[in-house]
Amino acid sequence: MINGVTTRVNIDTYIMNAIREDITSEDVTTNAIMPEPRQGKAELICKEDGIICGLEVFKRTFELLDDTATFEAYVKDGDQVKKGQLMGVIKGDIKALLSGERTALNYLQRMSGIATYTRMYAKELEGKKTKLLDTRKTTPNMRPFEKYAVKVGGGTNHRYNLSDGVLIKDNHIGAAGSITKAVALAKEYAPFVRKIEVEVETLEQLDEALAAGADIIMLDNMDNDTMREAVRRVAGKAETECSGNVTAERLAEIAEIGVDYVSSGALTHSAPIMDISLKNLVPTE
């Protein structure tokens, strides 16, 4: 399952939209050089070290173009792969292999890049109680794939979308008039089973959020000393999340402060792609 989208038909919609973006009417180059169907195969080769992620999406892209396509994978999502490694062989109509190559690789490279980047962050928190979270800072129409990649890399998903939980941020507080009013309105509207998280930037806001009954306090862009005092004041009355200016280098010291969660938009908005190629395409008949 790709996180947040549980049925194949929904995932297919995302992939088909990407295919239609790349082929608005026809693949004119492929149709020119390959006018008739012909079976072939190509090799999926890793061009740098990293964590592979998105193999099912890669395969499904070709299946949507050619229902005879098959993919033999030599690795699985989450595996550490090395530069030059042969990761699998895709077989099918050469027209589909040519037309689907870029879309399939775009998914695989992006997802593998996020998984690799997340793994680097997650290693800094190994053995610590602090959990690593992603955010909603995802590429439009790529969220299910990117959040899945975070999990493969060793992170944990924050809320999937705006329907998934209550998170009162600075502009919500401004709209309501105060943290106290915002929390009261959220408690009145949202089902009692929903936790209420409040973003705070100062210790004064923290005290107000605790008094209002927030379940989770997001400590936004606080320096280490302020965050340490915030955790002391919370004293288990709510869960705590550190957010803002989170780098891999800061993770160990953030975990030492004792927050329950640390969230980083960089996992999805700043991860570089992993270089992967589809090579050595040859006819098989």
Please supply descriptive tags for the structure shown above:
alpha/beta, 12 strands, 285 residues, four-stranded antiparallel sheet, six-stranded parallel sheet
Write the layout of secondary structure elements.
Layout lengths: L7 H15 L5 H6 L5 E8 L3 E2 L3 H11 L4 E4 L6 E2 L4 E8 H30 L7 E3 L9 H11 L12 E3 L1 H7 L2 H11 L6 E5 L2 H10 L3 E5 L3 H11 L4 E5 L7 H7 L3 E3 L2 H4 L6 E8 L2
Parallel strand pairs: 6-11, 7-8, 8-9, 9-10, 10-11
Antiparallel strand pairs: 1-5, 1-12, 2-4, 3-5
Helix pairs in contact: 1-3, 3-4, 4-5, 6-7, 7-8, 8-9
Characterise the protein shown here.
Helix content is 43%, strand content 20%. With 285 residues, the chain is an alpha/beta fold. α1 (8-22) crosses α3 (55-65), α3 packs antiparallel against α4 (94-123) and α8 packs parallel to α9 (224-234). It is elongated and about 75 Å long.
SSE class: alpha/beta
Order of helices and strands: HHEEHEEEHEHEHHEHEHEHEHE
Mean pLDDT: 95
| Discrete helix count | 11
Portion of residues in beta strands equals 15-25%
Total beta strands? 12
The largest sheet, given as strand count, sense and whether it forms a barrel, is: 6 strands, parallel
Radius of gyration: 23 Å
Low-confidence stretches: none
Q: Summarize the amount of helix as a percent range.
A: 40-55%
Going across the major beta sheet, what is the strand order? 6-11-10-9-8-7
Distance between the termini: 35 Å
The dominant shape is elongated
